[in-house]
Amino acid sequence: MAEPIRMTKRDAARRENEARILAAAEKVFAEAGFGGATMQLIADMAGLPKANLHYYFDTKEELYRKVVQQIFEIWLHAADSFDNAPGPVEGIGAYIDAKMDISRHHPFGSKVWASEVMHGAPVIQDYLETTLRDWTKGRAAVIQRWVDEGKMAPIDPRHLLYMLWAATQHYADFGHQIETLNGGRPLTDRQWREAKESVKTVILRGIGAI
Amino acid sequence: MAEPIRMTKRDAARRENEARILAAAEKVFAEAGFGGATMQLIADMAGLPKANLHYYFDTKEELYRKVVQQIFEIWLHAADSFDNAPGPVEGIGAYIDAKMDISRHHPFGSKVWASEVMHGAPVIQDYLETTLRDWTKGRAAVIQRWVDEGKMAPIDPRHLLYMLWAATQHYADFGHQIETLNGGRPLTDRQWREAKESVKTVILRGIGAI
DNA sequence: GTCTATATTTCGATAGAC
DNA sequence: GTCTATCGAAATATAGAC
């Protein structure tokens, strides 16, 4: 009779510990890279003995893989803003907003993703070739339709998508450089709004949508 | 009497070995990150015994530092295209051309730079705070002048610079992703030209310069 | 200047008591 | 499930013959 309750408690502890470890791992992997990250650093940041990490995640690589998968999900959700939009002003505008918000609130995830891709995507190559390829194909078709409908200038949809990814993720991946050039201070709320507006204005006017 | 010649030969050998090591190190650091790179890998790629690396560069960190400095010089030279331009179309257009060429021909350097900044610039923080800060201030002033002269729309010069860096370097740093989305094949000459034109068109129209 | 062999350290992973 | 102690592998760095 006590079993269900004990299982629930145990499961709750497991979930919490896993979440703590994943959050710590995301930060450490982002700041030190996969090779520079150590299980000891992650354990210290999670407030757990190193051996416990190996209890929840067999190997360092498995832990890293989970972190990258987590990030990938976040990227995919940003695409929702893109859908069901009547035209590029709403669709691309909302997408930029969503991506900029992610850069601000998930900078570690963005960096881990960037690092993974820069090193040749040794862990998530299959995602690139399946999920991301399909996603890109679909969005490129939407953009092409907007071009055909005369709602924006004729731009290669692929290169436009790359520009959107580049411009938005830059604020996370190169956040340290931006902060340094900002006098060593993080961007304020106001500056983040200005950044968003700058990106949206240049892109939307650049594709002839406004 | 023979000394000068022997010194010259020795110096030539030294320079060639250093260059070989630096080229190999740039590639390995780019592909594996600082932590993932090993002196053995670099030595193998340079075709030298591992101990020789320590003869030319005392520590792994010193070798890495030299690689990053080399890259920094390349970035600075790209700024020449930006100067002495009558307006944004010529200045920013030439800058985009130069940065895109660097992304194509120095992808490893770009990745090492990106990785260094992403990890908080532990090695080149002083460069960010001096050389890069001054450089950015100067270019931002030029852009602001163009705005004041009515040659382009009122855009925050900082955010425009970030967009230029982001859009151009993305083709190096995320080259693997772009290649995967291109059917697993590197961009052709034609596709590189299209990429350049896309970036230039969107940016220059986006800032109201064309 | 070059290279082999090795010292020293660090890290990922595990064993085993609790 | 948790934690201490430790193993074994791998990496940086160096010693010393040539």
Task: List strands and helices in order, with pairings.
The structure is a homodimer of 210-residue chains.
Chain A lengths: L2 H34 L2 H8 L3 H7 L3 H19 L9 H18 L1 H12 L6 H24 L8 H17 L1 H7 L7 H18 L4
The structure holds a DNA duplex (18 and 18 nucleotides).
**Major sheet description of chain A:** none
CATH class of the largest domain in chain A: Mainly Alpha
Oligomer: homodimer
How many H/I helical runs of chain A? Answer: 10
The structural class of chain A is mainly alpha
Quick one: which chains have the greatest interface? A-B, 55 and 55 residues
Radius of gyration of chain A: 20 Å
The helix/strand series of chain A, from N terminus to C terminus, equals HHHHHHHHHH
Q: Output mean pLDDT of chain A.
A: 93
Which term fits the overall shape of chain A?
globular
Q: Tell me the domain tally of chain A.
A: 2
What's the β-strand tally of chain A?
Answer: 0
Please identify which CATH superfamily of the largest domain in chain A we are dealing with. Answer: Tetracycline Repressor, domain 2
The CATH topology name of the largest domain in chain A reads: Tetracycline Repressor, domain 2
Distance between the termini of chain A: 66 Å
Helix content of chain A: over 70%
Any low-confidence stretches of chain A, pLDDT <50, length ≥5? 1-6
